[in-house]
C-alpha cells in the first residue's frame, strides 16, 4: 500500500472519532464541537496531502482513485448526517448529496466494467473542498442560521453542477 493510500485510509479511520465527538457536542458550541472541528479539519487536510503525495511521488493507483473519493464522501456525509439529526441541515439537501454520490459511483462502476477509470474531475474537487470548508464553518460558528443556509446552498449547487458534469463528460460510458 502506498503512502498516499495510507494517508487516505487514516481519513476513513478518523470518522468514528469525529462522529463520537460530534454526538457529545449535541450541536452546541463548546469543547466537543471544537474537538470535532479539529478532527474534521485534520481529516480534510489529508485529502490535499494524499493527493499531493500521490501525484508528486507517482503513487497514483486505481485503489487510491477509488478510496480517496470514498473517504471524502464518508467524512462529509457523516457531518451532514449529524447536522441533519439536529435539524440544521435539511433532509432534502442531504438527499440531493446522497443521490449524486450514488449516481456518480454507479457511473464509475459502469465505466470500470468497460475498462475506464473515472478519476475525480475539477468540479468534483471544487464540490468537495467547498463542502469541507462550509461544514467547518458550520462547526466553528454553530447556530448561525444565515451561515448554515449559505453553506447548504453552496453544497447543493456544487453537488448538482459536478454531478451533471460527470454525466455529460462520461455519457458514452452508459451505452
Poorly predicted runs are none
CA radius of gyration is 16 Å
Please give the number of β-strands. 0
Strand content: under 5%
The topology string of helices and strands comes to HHHHHH
Major sheet: none
SS field, number of helical segments: 6
Please estimate the helix content.
over 70%
What is the mean pLDDT? 94
Span between termini: 34 Å
Shape: globular
Q: Which structural class is indicated by helix and strand composition? A: mainly alpha
Report on the structure:
- The chain is mainly alpha-helical.
- The chain is 80% helix and 0% strand.
- It starts with a helix and ends in a 6-residue tail after the last helix.
- The model has no long low-confidence stretch (mean pLDDT 94).
Topology:
Elements: H1 3-25, H2 31-56, H3 62-85, H4 91-113, H5 122-140, H6 145-169
Helix pairs in contact: 1-2, 1-3, 2-3, 2-5, 3-4, 3-5, 4-6, 5-6
Amino acid at each position: 500500500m502506498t503512502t498516499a493510500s495510507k494517508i487516505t485510509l487514516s481519513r476513513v479511520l478518523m470518522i468514528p472519532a469525529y462522529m463520537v465527538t460530534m454526538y457529545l457536542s449535541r450541536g452546541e458550541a463548546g469543547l466537543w464541537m471544537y474537538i470535532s472541528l479539529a478532527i474534521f479539519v485534520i481529516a480534510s487536510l489529508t485529502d490535499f496531502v494524499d493527493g499531493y503525495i500521490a501525484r508528486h511521488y507517482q503513487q497514483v493507483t486505481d485503489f487510491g482513485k477509488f478510496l480517496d473519493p470514498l473517504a471524502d464522501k464518508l467524512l462529509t456525509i457523516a457531518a451532514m448526517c449529524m447536522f441533519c439529526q439536529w435539524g440544521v441541515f435539511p433532509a432534502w439537501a442531504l438527499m440531493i448529496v446522497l443521490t449524486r454520490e450514488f449516481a456518480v459511483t454507479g457511473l464509475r462502476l459502469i465505466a470500470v466494467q468497460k475498462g475506464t477509470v473515472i478519476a475525480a474531475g475539477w468540479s468534483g474537487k471544487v464540490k468537495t473542498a467547498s463542502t469541507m470548508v462550509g461544514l467547518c464553518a458550520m462547526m466553528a460558528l454553530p447556530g448561525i442560521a444565515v451561515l448554515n443556509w449559505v453553506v447548504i446552498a453552496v453544497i447543493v449547487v456544487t453537488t448538482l453542477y459536478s454531478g451533471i458534469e460527470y454525466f455529460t463528460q462520461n455519457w458514452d460510458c452508459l451505452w
